[in-house]
Every structure is written in C-alpha cells, then in structure tokens.
Specification:
The protein has 330 residues and is mainly α. It contains 13 helices and 4 strands. This is 2-oxoglutarate receptor 1.
C-alpha cells in the first residue's frame, strides 16, 4: 500500500510536494477550461446545429463525458490542498470512478469517430447510411455500457486511508496491489491498446485513400488529415504516459527490495501523468472545431449574438444530400 512507503525517511518526498502543488493547479485549470469549453460546445450543438448526424451525436456525448469529469474536479482540488478527505468513502469512490469513466469513455468515443470517418472516406457509398442518427445513438449507447462494464469493478477497489484525524482518498493505482495489478492490465490492453490499434488501422487506410484521391489537395482532405493527427496525438500524448506509469507505479509497490528513492520517483512520474490524461478535454475542444466549418459558423454566431450575423444565422442546418467532401467535414 502507498502509506507504507511514506514511513521511509531516507529520501526526499518529492511525490508529496507534487501532490500538494501540481495536482491542484492542473486540476483547477482543467476544471475551468473543461466547464467553459464543453458547456459552450453543448449550447452550440443543442441550439445552432440541425439536423444532427451520427458524428455530431458522438461529439455531444463526448462533451457530456468531459463535462461530468470537470464537475468532479473541484472536490479533488480541495482534497489535495487540505490533504484531508471529508466527503466520505462513497464519494471518494465516485470521484475516482469519474476520472476513469471519462478516460475510457473518451477513448471509445474517439475510436468510434475514427471508424465512422474510415467508412466515409474509404467506403463513400456507405457514407450516407453511416451518417444517420440511429448509428450515432447506437454507438454512444454501446460506449456508455462498455465503459460502465470496464470501470464498474473499480468501485469495489477504491478505498479511504485513515491516519489519526487525517483521511486520504487513495488513487486507484495505490490500492491493493494484487487486485490493481491484474485489473490494471486488463484495462490497459482492452481499454487502451486495442482501441489504439483500431484508430491506427483506420487512419492508415484513410491516409492511403486520401493520398490516391484526386481531391487530396482540397481543404476537406487537409481537415481530415488534421483530425487524424489530433486524435492520434490524444492517444499518444495524453493516454500513453498514464498507462505506462500506472503499470510502473503498481509494480513498484509490489516489489519488496526497491529503494525509497525509486518508489518516490516512479510515484512522482505517475502523479504527473494523471492530469496529462485529463488534458484530453483540451484536445476534444479542438476536435469540435476541426470537425467542420458548421461548428465554427455556429460558434461565431453565438459569440456575436445581437449582431447582424446572429440575426441571419439562427440555426446552422446540415443538408440531407451530402457530397463526399461535405461528409469529410462532419
């Protein structure tokens, strides 16, 4: 357990300083940007963009997942500043659950977007069918159910740690090492590595198709490439360090002979990777903009409400008959 290593006095407690100062600052920034950005995105989707296509339905659900995660962060900020959890064990489990539910839900939503875009670009004859609402609704229901099944067991693994009058809400990787070890590997393989393979496979075929297309220099093709790079960047920059450091963190707790310095160093790197995983909410905000010009038009319509633009662009309608270049922007 994590508290055993805290008894050691032969090394500098850099992980405790990182917990105290780095986590509240990062979670505070993510909370403010996540709340503002995703609330704005939801307002745009709900009031400005009609009718909804399957990709927009996925975007809306992604924004809802990010918003729920952002709403849970103020309690963590308070906990890391005061170093004392006062909300009870049930809320502790729920808050830790929210982080992982958002993490693996976001991974699956981004994977769905990659699959849908693959169908639009590589199999354009099926594009009109895959853009229908029912496919978006089905994909989102599947993501929520699978995410719940993946993360549900975690509710029984998260615990509180009481030392005197101080209560700690222990993070997932610092709980019972034997349970966390095998369960963490299952999450890493099926919750992250497998979706990453699907995303890479989808975008490799998209890149190949666009490179051979006569429209490869069009703005829509450039936007599709940028979107692919953005999603791959989220998987590598945000999600990969967290999954690597989580494995190393749990392994350091399982090893008996590891020095205190190494344990604290690994724990510090693990702490640094946790808000990094939460930064996927920042990338998702850019994703909404890259998804197509319609969102940008609706955004400026919202910003400049009361002006002539707002009077003339009340609702941005998406035509029912879409060309392939139009579909690339959805």
């Amino acid at each position: 357990m994590a508290h055993l290593e805290n008894n050691a006095t032969d090394c500098f407690p850099i992980d405790e300083f990182t917990n105290r100062y780095y986590l509240p600052a990062m979670y505070g920034i993510i909370c403010v940007v996540g709340l503002t950005g995703n609330l704005t995105a939801l307002v745009i989707y709900l009031t400005k963009l009609r009718p909804w296509k399957s990709s927009i339905i996925i975007m809306v659900n992604l924004a809802v997942a990010d918003l729920l995660y952002a709403l849970s962060l103020p309690m963590l900020v308070k906990f890391y500043i005061t170093k004392n959890w006062t909300l009870g064990e049930l809320m502790c489990r729920f808050i830790r659950f929210c982080f992982h539910f958002n993490l693996y839900g976001s991974i699956l939503f981004l994977t769905c977007l990659s699959i849908f875009r693959y169908i639009v670009v590589v199999h354009p004859l099926k594009a009109a069918q895959i853009s229908r609402k029912r496919w978006g609704v089905l994909a989102c229901l599947t993501v929520w159910i699978v995410s719940l099944l993946e993360i549900g067991p975690m509710l029984g693994m998260i615990t509180e740690l009481r030392t005197g009058n101080v209560t700690q809400c222990v993070d997932f990787a610092s709980n019972d090492t034997e349970e966390v070890w095998w369960y963490g590997w299952i999450l890493t393989v099926f919750g992250y590595a497998l979706p990453l393979v699907v995303v890479c496979w989808s975008y490799s075929h998209i890149a190949s198709t666009l490179s051979n297309s006569i429209s490869r220099h069009r703005r829509s093709s450039s936007r599709a490439r940028s979107l692919a790079i953005l999603i791959l960047a989220v998987f590598v920059v945000c999600f990969l360090p967290y999954h690597i450091m989580r494995v190393l963190r749990v392994n350091s707790l399982r090893r008996v002979g590891m020095s205190c310095t190494w344990k604290r160093s690994i724990n510090t790197a693990y702490i640094l990777s946790r808000p990094l995983a939460g930064l996927n909410t920042f990338f998702n905000l850019a994703l909404y903009t890259l998804a197509g010009d319609k969102f940008q038009q609706a955004f400026w319509s919202l910003v400049h409400r009361g002006t002539h633009m707002n009077r003339t662009i009340a609702v941005i309608h998406t035509p029912n008959n879409l060309s392939k270049s139009d579909l690339l922007r959805i």
